[in-house]
Amino acid sequence: MGSPMTPVPEFVVAGMWGLVSGSGLLLGAIVADALSGKLSHRMVSAIMGFGGGVLFAVIATELVVRPHAGGAATWPTIALPVGAGIFSGINWYLARRGARDRKRCGECVEQPNEAEHHGSGAAIAVGSVLDGIPEALVIGMSVAGGGAISLAVIVGFFLANVPQGLSSTSGMKLAGRSRTYIYTIWIGIPLIIAIAAGVGNFLLGSASAQEPAILLFAAGAVLAMLAEAMIPEAFENAPPFIGLITVLGFLATYLIA
């Protein structure tokens, strides 16, 4: 008789799912590169609005309602603003160094190039990593204790990452950044998300009592990212019915959840 298969460690599973969800960034970059010059701001805006709706649904159904349903009534009032405050503080610092418009497609609001703002390339890279850390934290905690990760979490993050990679890449190309830089960013960040998800699971996976707080902390950070990075691109000079497009993104993920 053969020996039973050794179960895959949780942190490895978390890392694999992190890589899957983060790969949406690379897909968006490939699409933007392939359609260079053919994507108008309104097209990008519509896609970004849909992605924003997707993330709103992930936050509402997977990160806030379910943890809160367990009776941890005080967690939202503490963890949500702490997560948002930490993200906003780091984002403010990076914005001063050129990363403020990192998700802009460039047609409406241009990203700074290196000549205009020295060090902006590095700041944009770090800012893009920052945007993915809450996602990694959620994935790492979702598989803790042998739990099955929600399909809505993976599909939602993947679908929301595609427009982020698409819009940001369009802006990077208009700012004169090289393809080497662009693909280094969008290949590297999914790998970082995977590593962060695995590390987060390894370090925090045993903290089941604090899981609602950790998920709500991540929810606050994701909400802040939406408000400061995604929504401005989605709604500035937006196409008609951008509100409906955003709601459709929310509905699609809600139905999956």
Keywords:
mainly alpha; single chain; 75% helix; 0% strand; 257 residues; 8 helices
Describe this structure in words.
The chain is an all-alpha fold. The chain contains eight helices and no strands. It is about 75% helix and about 0% strand. α1 (about 10-35) packs across α4. The protein is globular, with a radius of gyration of 18 Å.
**What's the structural domain tally?**
1
What are the secondary-structure elements, in order, as H or E? Answer: HHHHHHHH
Tell me, rounded to a whole number, the average pLDDT. Answer: 89
Ends apart, CA distance between termini: 41 Å
Low-confidence stretches: none
**Tally of strands:** 0
Q: Structural class, judged by helices and strands?
A: mainly alpha
Shape: globular
The oligomeric status of these chains comes to single chain
Strand-residue proportion: under 5%
Radius of gyration using CA atoms only: 18 Å
Helix content: over 70%
Largest beta-sheet characterization: none
Question: Number of helical segments?
Answer: 8
Write the layout of secondary structure elements.
Layout: H1 10-34, H2 41-69, H3 75-99, H4 120-142, H5 151-174, H6 179-204, H7 211-235, H8 242-256
Helix pairs in contact: 1-4, 1-5, 1-6, 2-5, 2-7, 2-8, 3-4, 3-7, 4-6, 4-7
At a glance:
The protein is an all-alpha fold and 257 residues long. The chain is 75% helix and 0% strand.
